[in-house]
TrEMBL record:
Superkingdom of origin: Bacteria
Domain FAD dependent oxidoreductase: 22-234
SUPFAM superfamilies: FAD/NAD(P)-binding domain (SSF51905), NAD(P)-linked oxidoreductase (SSF51430)
Annotated family: Belongs to the GMC oxidoreductase family.
UniProt keyword annotations, A-Z: FAD, Flavoprotein, Oxidoreductase
Cross-referenced InterPro entries: FAD-dep_OxRdtase (IPR006076), FAD/NAD-bd_sf (IPR036188), GMC_OxRtase_C (IPR007867), NAD(P)_OxRdtase_dom_sf (IPR036812), NADP_OxRdtase_dom (IPR023210), P2Ox-like (IPR051473)
Protein's name according to its UniProt entry: FAD-dependent oxidoreductase
Amino acid sequence: MYSDMLFELSRVDLGALPAPEIIIVGGGAVGLTMAAELARKQRRVLLLEAGTKRVSRESQALMEGASWEGFPLVGLHSGRFRVLGGGTNFWGGQLVPMDQAVFLDRPWREETAWPIAPEEIQAYYRRAFELIGMRQQLEDPEVWKRLGITPPASSSNIDLIFTRWAPEPNFAQLFAEDIEKSPNLTVLLDAQVTAFEMENDRVVGARTKSLSGREATFRAPFVVLANGTVEIARLLMLPLASGQPAPWSGNPWLGKGFLDHVDCDAGSAYPIDKERFHEIFDNAYIDGVKYSPKLKLACDAQMKHELGSIAGHFLFNSSLSEHLAFAKSFVKSLMRGRFDVDLKSLPREALFILRFSLPLVLRYIFYRRMYNPADLGIQLRLTSEQRALMSSAITLSEERDCLGVPQVKVVWKVEEAEIATLSRFALMLAEYIEGAGLARIELDPRLAAGDPAFLQGIDDANHQMGGARMAGDAAGGVVDANLRVFGAQNLFVAGAAVYPSSGFPNPTFTAIALGLRVCDSIVDALQNDRTPESKAESRVEPLARRHPKIAGVETTPLGFGCAYLTAGWEQRKSSRLIHAALEGGIRHFDVAPSYGMGSAEDALGAALVGRRSEVTIASKAGLARPQVKSYVMAARALAAPIRRALPMITRGVGSKVVQGARRQFGLPVIEASLTESLRRLRTDYLDLFFLHQAEPEDVTDEVLRFLDDLRSKGLVRWIGVASDRSACETIAVAHPGFFDAFQYSWSILNHDCPPFGGARLTLTHRALLNALQPVGEWLSQRPDACQRLSEAAQMDLSAERNLADVLLSCALLANEDGIVLASSRKTQRVRRLGEVMENQSLKNSARAFLAAFPQEAGTYFGSEARPA
Ligand SMILES: Cc1cc2nc3c(=O)[nH]c(=O)nc-3n(C[C@H](O)[C@H](O)[C@H](O)COP(=O)(O)OP(=O)(O)OC[C@H]3O[C@@H](n4cnc5c(N)ncnc54)[C@H](O)[C@@H]3O)c2cc1C
């Protein structure tokens, strides 16, 4: 479906990806430009993009989960896009270099200067123009010259400038060839980075999750965050993959100093000399580049009058503007050789196109200007910067999105004092335009009077900035002047998030230029071998290990055991557990007719409605389903609080029921059991079908033929035996190659018993049930051994939660290519299971624990340490 180097995380073979030198998080305006630049400089880049090639409702919903407080920040929902190309899919592509004022200390606004000199960015603006295909763009005087127009002279307060627009605004299109063809650039879609792994002060892994729940960790010597202002702050605020806070999490500016432009209607313009007005203020097109005239407050005037950075432009309103917009896109589409317009509207629009095309084409050809009818008037729009405030902030909320990541809440604050800049500038601009004899300006009276109430009507500009500001030291910002995160050697931020103040300009051009500056410093470090660690470090690594497959369907190394699930009165609780497992990334579910008083299959089936295709399910036959009356179930649900408080009352009851049950492997029994399981699970097939607690004598030729028949009918995909280990081993030897899977218990107490092989898949269970309590008790009696093992594992193993994590990780290590089943009645613990599955440092702890445990424990667990 995709070309050579463009993949989706949920489908890609992770082992086949090239090892990157740089990971870029986010494929929007900044990330794509940086990726292209680095790849063209022969550096190996992995770009991780949360969205896919098209905007989808499901993906976009993750952006829309954010909320705001304070001034309405509409762009938080309607101005951010989770798709390859990010905002460039919908922006105009207006490119404006930063206002000089931000490089100066402005004590009257309490704004600190940017920690870099303006000259440090100039070369990168030029490079950005080149990459965007605007090598031929002209300086302002040259534009006027080519238009054959003498502009009005700038006044001491107002500068008349041009902004430039990218000829191809959609960066996924602009860099399509790099994305699809460059051997140095791998783009992974549907790959949201959700956490980092760190060692000392280095990021050593970017944990990534797809919408379908597939996860992987990617590694490279350098990591760059280019995932847009709000998402950059969000990612930096999240805990590390280990659950620990990130080293930068205490930075006083993290998430703070959020900015947007204050955008507003200032009033109307009534041209005195209409022709001259259009001559000055209509957009111009020269050599394929569009230029827009803007009026900005001169830098000296800002100093003199102690104001902020601000600019204005005119909007031409027409009853025909909708049709005009269609005509423009139609012409653009024709020129690009592809249709971005809705062709169904073409016949309806044809008349208008004919009507417009003559003046449009004539004005374009003869004057290189846009035709701007203005029968509904000319509006003056202002765009002003706001002062950075600690209280204007991006924060994490209690809510989580469907990937399990905390949602974002943005508090957008704008001070009343900002009215001074808006009002004074509006008056200066009116004076300038009227003085030049161009138009009469009628300002909004509240604005002219400097009334702060005017601010109630402001808009945001879809220009989110700040939250990870740059500064000379960590007390003043989140990143240094080279955009490196304070507290991390190899983590950089590229984007408007780093702006300590914004000036008036649209933010993206400078963000791109700063990103290109980061590229240069990374390339320099790689060329001079100043990588944070040796280059051999760079690798792409599926989390912890490769994912196991059942009948060709990829699933997860950790499966959820459903023995505790019950339906009916406790369905909601059961669903919560299943959803927590899914959120944690678990995709395999193991159930049986006998589980949950006979209702676990109903509970699982109900919880998985609509998600069947995302998971693999194993169920069994052989132990009869208990027939429990509904009033018993109700009484059980009502007694749940008592059971929770006194777990010893019911501990083991379920397993005793199962152990006491009679084994039944008659063919009609197996058939009826399967039919009933499919009905209750609301599915047409089982991924795995086990003979439950089968002994060698149960596995007759007749049973084998029958099972084979079920497999060939597609009712079950794989067949296995779930029994004790010795029975499994004997059956495997007796029927070589018949069974696809074996399932038996394994814990650290069987440490010298690796999986016996003989099947495509080994599943183990009871890693905690068999070991947590005895090992925990032993460690509490032997503090010296506990200390030595804790040191080896680098974790405090006297804490039950840590011990549980390590024991489970040991089971994962012992069954590297298979599936380990685990369970819990607590949703938080279930979520944690998912984290254990992927945690690289836990894996290291488990390895050390596995090596040291036998010596420490000696023969203490002798009797239990036999195969279970
Ligand atoms: C209608 C409109 C018009 C605009 N016009 C202009 C203009 O003319 N000029 C201008 O300068 N600006 C304009 N903007 C603003 C501009 O679009 C943004 O400033 C710009 O897109 C920001 O670029 P970026 O690369 O930092 O982020 P984005 O373009 O937002 O890209 C970020 C990317 O990161 C991905 N992502 C997010 N989180 C993760 C994660 N955890 N893991 C992986 N990927 C992730 C997102 O899916 C997205 O693709 C406009 C915006 C809008 C909405």
